[in-house]
């Protein structure tokens, strides 16, 4: 299985970097909603919510469908699956809770120091 590169995921990381967009993703994970519903739930103006929706659309994280005069959004799960697959590749190196920077520093301090013999 081929894993996604960070370049493929850059729009997803960009979209998830904002807390309003993460809240939108959370709301859409529960059910599709109209743009005005999302704006009222998040306390954002329509221009502000449209700006966030555009970023999510550019990352292919939401799908828009117009019914009458109302735009509804639904979550596209594929980008989140790609992100999860990318993160999972690091699982073998996560280690345990006991492995930390302090543990590594203690390990390094126990190694014999290299001396410069050319002096």
Layout of SSEs?
Elements: H1 6-16, H2 19-30, E1 33-34, H3 35-42, H4 46-58, E2 62-67, E3 70-75, H5 78-88, H6 101-110
Antiparallel strand pairs: 1-3, 2-3
Your description of this structure?
- The protein has helices at 6-16, 19-30, 35-42, 46-58, 78-88, 101-110, and strands at residues 33-34, 62-67, 70-75.
- β2 (62-67) and β3 (70-75) form a beta hairpin.
- The protein is 55% helix and 12% strand.
- α1 (6-16) runs antiparallel to α4.
- The chain has a single domain (6-91), classed as Arc Repressor Mutant, subunit A.
- It is built from 6 helices and 3 strands, in the order ααβααββαα.
- With 119 residues, the protein is mainly α.
Features:
119 residues; mainly alpha; Arc Repressor Mutant, subunit A; three-stranded antiparallel beta sheet; 3 strands; elongated
Widest β-sheet, arrangement of strands: 1-3-2
Rounded radius of gyration (Å): 22 Å
CATH topology: Arc Repressor Mutant, subunit A
Relative strand content: 5-15%
Number of helices: 6
Helix content: 40-55%
- Tally of separate domains: 1
Return the structural class. Answer: mainly alpha
Mean model confidence by pLDDT:
86
User: How are helices and strands ordered from N to C?
Assistant: HHEHHEEHH
- Shape by Cα distribution: elongated
CATH architecture: Orthogonal Bundle
Query: Major sheet, described briefly?
Result: 3 strands, antiparallel
CATH homologous superfamily grouping: Winged helix-like DNA-binding domain superfamily/Winged helix DNA-binding domain
């Amino acid at each position: 299985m081929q894993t996604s590169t960070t370049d493929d995921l850059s729009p997803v990381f960009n979209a998830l970097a904002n807390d309003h967009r993460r809240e939108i993703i959370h709301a859409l994970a529960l059910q599709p909603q109209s743009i005005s519903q999302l704006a009222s739930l998040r306390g954002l103006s329509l221009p502000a919510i449209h700006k966030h929706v555009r970023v999510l659309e550019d990352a292919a994280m939401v799908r828009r469908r117009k019914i009458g005069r109302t735009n509804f959004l639904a979550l596209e799960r594929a980008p989140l699956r790609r992100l999860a697959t990318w993160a999972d590749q690091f699982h073998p190196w996560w280690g345990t809770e006991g492995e930390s920077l302090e543990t590594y520093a203690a390990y390094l301090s126990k190694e014999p120091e290299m001396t410069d013999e050319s002096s």
